[in-house]
Amino acid sequence: MDIKQRIDELITKLNKASDAYYGGQEEQMTNYEWDSLFDESSALEKETQYIRVDSPTQTISHSSDELGEEATGEKESHKYPALSLAKTKDVKVLQSWTGDRDIWLSWKLDGLTLVMTFDDGKLVKILTRGNGTIGTNITYMKNVIKGFPLEVSDKGHLVVRGEAAISYTDFEAINDTLDDVDDKYANPRNLASGTLALDKKNLDKVKERNVTFNAFTLVHTDKVIKSWGERMNYLDSLGFVTVDRELTNAAGIPAVIDKWTKKVESGEMDIPVDGLVITYDDIDYAATGSVTGHHATRAGFAYKWQDTSAISVLDHIEWSCAASIITPVAVFSPVQLEGTTVSRASLCNISELERLEIGENGKTKLEIIKANKIIPKCIAVVKAEGKFEIPTECPVCHAKTEVRVSKNSGTKTLRCTNPDCPAKYLKRFARFVSKTGMDIDGLSIQTLLAFVNKGFIHEFADIYHLREHYSEIVDMEGLGKKSCDNLLTAIEKSRTVNPVNFVYALCIPMIGIDAGKKIVGAIGSKGLFERVINNQGFDDIDGIGPEKSNAIIGWFNDPKNKATYTNLLKEVEVEDVEPKERNEGKCAGLVFVITGDVNTFKNRNDFKQYVENEGGKVTGSVSMKTAYLVNNDVESASSKNRQAKELRIPIISEDTFISLFGH
Predict the structure, then answer these.
(1) Which span out of 246-250, 369-373, 379-383 was modeled with the highest average pLDDT?
(2) What is the mean pLDDT of the chain?
(3) β-strand partners of 360
(4) Whether pTM exceeds 0.85
């Protein structure tokens, strides 16, 4: 194969992988592998000057739309093209580019770039980056994406560019509750892409996934602000979530990069990042650069970490059941990577085991990296003998397993055949312990999964017997004595629960917090339990109706659910709450906005629940209908405080609220 043929082969592989990555499909290769092939392609192009227009070195991304084919919004042109940045793994290249000028270093977030336009102080458009010149209009999602205000005090033309991202915590929680392998997402960016491709009928799902916009540059303002740093500070003052940043120069770049890299290596970053970005502070100078391919030469420079790998020997494959899928995890001899000890890495599914050609325990040498310095990943098998064994029974319930092949992707996964396997109820357990449920802090979905696989949890009531497994829990990876003690304390605190939260925690189909509030508000906790005992419906309650009423009756008539409910009542006490008319209560008829941290109430949900129990209403934005804005920082310059002052709405602290409306 000559050099040109090799370049053609590399471009085909890279573009295919990019299509999968940006189109919401299963990953074709890791970033580590992609970067290696990209670097090879770039070097060969420089050597031969054979450069194709569809080469990844020349395009913003091979995909024409980051949201994939499922995107439903209208296509629109960008007024200010969203060009990509040149990338390097060499700090000296960054220093050379910086010269004698001041630069800002910030995170290169791994999400989807969005462009927001404001006119006359109001948000008028949200576009995805798309291919850099044409994006998808997703303005209809403005109320379900976090991190930006809907109104700003700037009454001119304002254009802000940022990254919409989903945290690792939310990503893992969502993925662990998906039963179908085709529904699972390869990484947080993949999930963000799939989420922002949803239509107007699925806005609740978008909101649940906590997509957050992180502004990384102010593209245009009618105000004269010559400094990039001052522009970012201006976005802060308007109420945007902005990327972290630090001012430095060429001499200071190595130390700053080292400091920021350690933040990633320590696990401090919950938001996915895949590198760093440097930007000139002088906006006018940055604008004088030329455009090469799809790179603006002075708009900024991206730094990507040089991944390091280590070789280890496979000790065994641990099979972990979540929802209906049994996932293989490689457990190997500990190695040092990026400053931490690593001994485990997910192998995803059987197809990945076959692709890597995993062999027998103790006879397989693995090459391991930490993708983006965070996620342990097996990228290759260096040497192997024999072949891995697929377990014939579920690690949780010991029922028979079966290998299933996805009709869409062809991916092979191992499944538990028992329809009542406790691991299939992971999503229910997660809802049960959530803040709007029993509010048990410290029981993440990953911890729940570990407890289910250990056989500690089969039903809700088992959570209140975890102390019986104390010695085993203390020894589990990622927990320890302090975490275990805190968890057991949180469990004990949850033994007394409000009936609304209790109803939500039971996971009755179609019955959420709002339905619970309507029922308890209308008939109280005693009325609720009397109707359950007497098999009496709830369709006479405003906002419930026959469908939800039948869902409640049907749930309690199921013998398994009835046993779950009965066993749970042996462990918890449901508070006695009297029915309350809407026009009663200390907050009756008033609309509140609650912002910032709270001190006396447990959290803002607790605060909101109190207001609603007292006949009031809590909304997320300040308007003419708002009676009070509650903010413990009464003098802050936040956007909500400014809006309240403009509308002459009283801003009160939590203590003032309590003195006026009780607690």
Answers:
(1) 246-250
(2) 85
(3) none
(4) no
Q: Is 526 a catalytic residue?
A: no
- Distances in whole angstroms, Cα of residue 409 to Cα of each of 182, 192, 379, 405: 7, 20, 21, 8
Would strands 295-296 and 291-292 be described as parallel, antiparallel, or unpaired? antiparallel
Q: Read off the pLDDT of residues 318-345 as tens digits, 9 standing for 90 and up.
A: 898 876 788 899 999 999 887 778 888 8
> DSSP letter string over 144-197?
TSBSS-SB-S--SEEEEEEEEE--HHHHHHHHTT--SGGG--SSHHHHHHHHHT
Q: What per-residue confidence (pLDDT) applies to 22?
A: 54
Residue 133 has phi, psi (to 5 degrees) of -115, -30
Instruction: Give Cα separations from 467 to 310, 425, 547 (angstroms).
Output: 38, 21, 40
Torsion of CA 422, 427, 432, 436, to 10 degrees: 180
Phi, psi of 624 (to 5 degrees): -60, -25
Question: Which pLDDT band, with edges at 50, 70 and 90, does 498 fall under?
Answer: very high
**Strand pairing of 365-371 and 75-77?**
unpaired
Cα(437)–Cα(149) distance, integer angstroms: 29
User: 445, 487, 440: which is closest to 467 by C-alpha?
Assistant: 487
Which of 172, 434, 178 is CA-nearest to residue 323? 178
Name the nearest CA neighbour of 272 among 371, 179, 366: 371
Task: Please give the Cα distance from 19 to 25 (Å, whole number).
Answer: 8
Residues in contact with 557: Cβ distance below 8 Å, sequence separation at least 6, in sequence order: 535
Place 293 in a pLDDT band, splitting at 50, 70 and 90. Answer: low
CA distance 233 to 515: 42
Given a contact cutoff of 8 angstroms between Cβ atoms, the answer to whether 81 and 317 are in contact is no
CA-based radius of gyration for the chain: 27
Report the C-alpha dihedral over residues 352, 108, 174, 415, rounded to 10 degrees.
0
Of these residues, 46, 89, 92, 108, which one is catalytic? 108
Q: 42 is written with which tokens?
A: 């770039």
